[in-house]
Amino acid sequence: MRFLRKPSGLIGLIGIACLLLLALFANILAPADPWAIGARPLLAPLEKGYIFGTDSLGRDVAAGVIHGARVSVFIGVASALATGLIGVTMGLVAGYAGGWLDAALTRTTEFFQVIPAIVLAVVVLSFAGPNMITIILVIALISWPPIARLARAETMALRHREFVMAARLQGESRLSILTGHILPNAAPPLIAALSLSIATAILTESALAFLGLGDPNTMSWGYMIGSGRTMMRQAWWITAFPGVALMLSVLCINLATGAYSDDLTQRLTQKGSQ
Amino acid sequence: MTNPIVKVNNLSVSLPGGASRNHAVHDISFEIFPRETLCLVGESGSGKSVVAHSILGLLPNALTITTGTIEWQGRDIARLEDRAMRHLRGREISMVFQEPGTALNPLATCGAQVLEAIAMHEPQRATKDAVVRGLTEVGLPDPERIMRAYPFELSGGQRQRVAIAMALANAPKMIIADEPTTALDVATQAKILDLFKMTQNAQERPALLFITHDLAVVAEIADKVAVMKDGRIVEAGLAADVLTRPQHPYTQALCSAVFAPPRAQARESTVKDTALKLSGIAKSYRKRGGWNRKVTTVAALKPMSLSIARGECLAVVGESGSGKSTLARVATGLEPVSQGVIEMTPKAAPGYRIMTPTDCARHVQMVFQDPATSLNPRMPILETVTRGARAQGMARKDANARATELMRAVGLEPEMLTRYPAEFSGGQRQRIAIARALMLAPEILVADEAISALDVLVQVQVLDLLNTLRHQFGLTLLFITHDLRAAAAIADKVLVMQTGHVVEYGAAEQVFENPTHPYTKTLLAAVPGRRRHAQAPDPSVSCSLPD
Question: In this complex, do A171 and B361 lie within 8 Å of one another by their Cβ atoms?
């Protein structure tokens, strides 16, 4: 936890903690249903006790922002996990196997990379129908290639190391070598990359919701921005508050992961120079 | 009496908190007179490089000079600011680094780099002629070609010559050479040492601060020597005195470890059955062609046949690129042979032929060169040692018991099994690697340069350990090394390899006493330290090798 000594790491982590608290205690902080119509439409912030005002249907923007944090955290973490599962598996197998299997998997990775991500997501979601599960899977589908490439590169660097050869000589199985020797040593950069992909996933979900492809039953920041965009001139607060929440969350995640990976590289290079 | 060119007084450099000791170097004093060669000797971590770096102001930020002065021609430069220091660097004091492959810029031609070294200080002298002269001086053939060559086009020895040419470019008053021959082959090392000696014989020769871990190298070139241990100078004096009559116990241990000449004792040959038989094996690698390049094959190992008797120790000797490591890799089944057959005879089932990796794991194990990389840094030792045995179906309890037993056998405490590799020294790590190799009770142990990454005294200990274990467990040992002294200390038979060929094979005492092939003679003649005592090698032979 040395990266906490850097201001960027500390600020990032405090921000992430706030986001988690919002998500965790959303029901206590804003007991009302964010979809409920509670007051006159288009109340300005602080009017009648609505600190962020109300939207065009009279729903509480503050409640939306608070409950939106829950959606963002869930989508971010779940799709980062799914991304990691696909990407790391593909990368480990490709990097360790080499030969035609590597070539096939790498071409597949490149195939996904050349298709514009958001277009692919829109197409898949239009067919599959937007709900929480499909959205998470689609985000994983468009964000695993960089993780796979990183895992592949790490694996290729590690597989000729002497401890891996020693494990081979001892007759360990490929699975045992991959999970016991290569994955633990490749983990630090992968963790850094995956935690960054949480931020990307939150952004992607918002973008999809903005385009009307969000889960219709969940109040997310992207949905709020999307539905409020036509009223931007009359009621700036409908889009501004979820927008600021989105920006701050992504910024804090980036700050924290940046500080963490800086710390990591520093530690690794120090180790190398000894 | 002239004044010393550099005088180091009570120099102490502190380490950051949390290190194994407070000072990188503690209370160091020495002086070097013009045209004199001082060798700083010590094992890794003894602080010898820190001394060199503090003279040139190259210390990393974490290290600071706490007390003491460094007088350069009477002026203290220990705390000189960078701008003034730049004036000294390269012009008055220059440096030659250990690894010529990384000390040169890979993206610039050698000529450009030498030219830059001159232009930095004397722009008016920076001409092509000066560069050619510089490259000729360090004995590079065809300097015009070398000038236009990039570092990767040259051999290690040639690169080091270019680095030395850069160091000599401005006729400095002193050169600091930090292990300049350690990364090189034996024969190349001898030539680079000759080059240093030659520059030391020149009229306007610079003073030389030569840093090395190898006392034999000291014997070759030093006027004076200072022996360092744990950041202190434990013994200093004229090289001849220190080497022949070492006073400090540490120096005595070093001397006795090094100056055993490569002379094997005749060992009784009890007739044994064959443990490993290689028939006509060869290995070639395919170099992938690009879109405009053809696929080429490189023969790393030319067809060879060999049989090793049970319980025998065969040393495979050669320089890098001689194919000796390839031999290790095919003999252990890490890589398939391109042609030929490898057969082994387990005690249980005679006439067996190695087929599967499982068979290899059961009967052939390997100890790797660098214990720092051959142990998984993120795995506790117990897991590292027992994992393979459990993969072969041994119960966890039995595996743990055997690991405990083997830890004692390699001279370590069984309690250490819970620790991680980072908590061990290089020698201890190599012992752990040996314990791992013995876990499956192999019949054949392949040691690929297993001691060359270790400090001199540790080398001796690990070599002793290997020798003991060999008899204790009845191992057949394939000992691969570039170090003839180590080969002589352990081997029954010796196989000399050059560019993939076997050039000489025979009983150890035969090969070391009466080498028949000129290459073997060159190798033997190139062993540092030997040349001072023995006759000069036949010049026609020593010149026949490429650099």
Answer: yes
DSSP state for residue B179 in the 8-state scheme: S
Q: Percentage of residues in chain B with pLDDT exceeding 90?
A: 15
Q: Which structure tokens are listed for A223?
A: 């949905």
B-chain residues within 8 Å CB-CB of A181? Answer: 376, 379
pTM: 0.77
Q: How far is Cα B49 from Cα B178, in angstroms, rounded to an integer?
A: 7
Closest alpha carbon within chain B to A188: B378
Residues of chain A with C-beta less than 8 angstroms from the C-beta of B383:
180
- Cα dist from A123 to A74, A214, B470, B506, whole Å: 23, 13, 67, 73
With bands split at pLDDT 50, 70 and 90, how would you rate the model's confidence at B259? low
Report DSSP state, residue A182: I
Q: Is B331 on the interface with A (CB under 8 A)?
A: no
| Residue B532: per-residue pLDDT | 45
CB–CB of B436 and A173 under 8 A? Answer: no
Q: Rounded distance, CA A142 to CA A133, Å?
A: 15
Which value, in Å, is the radius of gyration of the alpha carbons in chain A? 22
In angstroms, the CA B122 to CA B130 distance is: 11
Mean per-residue pLDDT for B92-121?
88
Q: By the 8 A CB rule, do B477 and B312 touch? A: yes
Please provide residue B224's backbone torsions phi and psi, each rounded to the nearest 5 degrees.
-125, 160
Query: Of A158, A159, A162, which to mutate for an interface test with B (greatest number of B Cβ within 10 Å)?
Result: A162
pLDDT bracket for residue B266 (50, 70, 90): low
CA distance A196 to chain B (A): 24
Complex prediction ipTM: 0.73
The minimum CA-CA distance between B394 and chain A, rounded to whole Å, is: 12
Report DSSP letters for B239-285, one per residue: HHHHHHS--SHHHHHHHHHH---S-PPP-------EEEEEEEEEEEE
Handedness of CA B157, B161, B166, B171 (dihedral sign): positive
Residues 6+ positions from B68 with CB-CB distance below 8 Å: B8, B9, B10, B11, B12, B27, B28, B29, B78
- Tokens 């002065």 sit at which residue? B69
DSSP assignments along B57-119, one per residue: T---TT-EEEEEEEEETTEE-TT--HHHHHHHBTTTEEEE-S-HHHHS-TTS-HHHHHHHHHH
Q: Which residues have C-beta within 8 Å of that of residue B284, sequence separation ≥ 6? A: B297, B298, B299, B300, B301, B338
Contact A162 B368 (CB under 8 A): yes
Task: Tell me what pLDDT residue B535 has.
Answer: 35
Residues B177-235 have pLDDT tens digits of: 988 887 777 777 888 888 888 777 766 788 899 998 888 888 888 889 999 988 899 99
For A2-267, the fitting CATH number among 1.10.3720.10, 3.50.30.10, 2.40.50.100, 1.20.1250.20 is 1.10.3720.10
For residue B379, which residues of chain A lie inside 8 Å, CB to CB?
180-181, 184
What is the C-alpha to C-alpha distance for residues A15 and A67, in angstroms, rounded to an integer? 17
In chain A, which residues have pLDDT < 70?
1-3, 265-274
Per the CB < 8 A criterion, the answer to whether B303 and B340 are in contact is yes
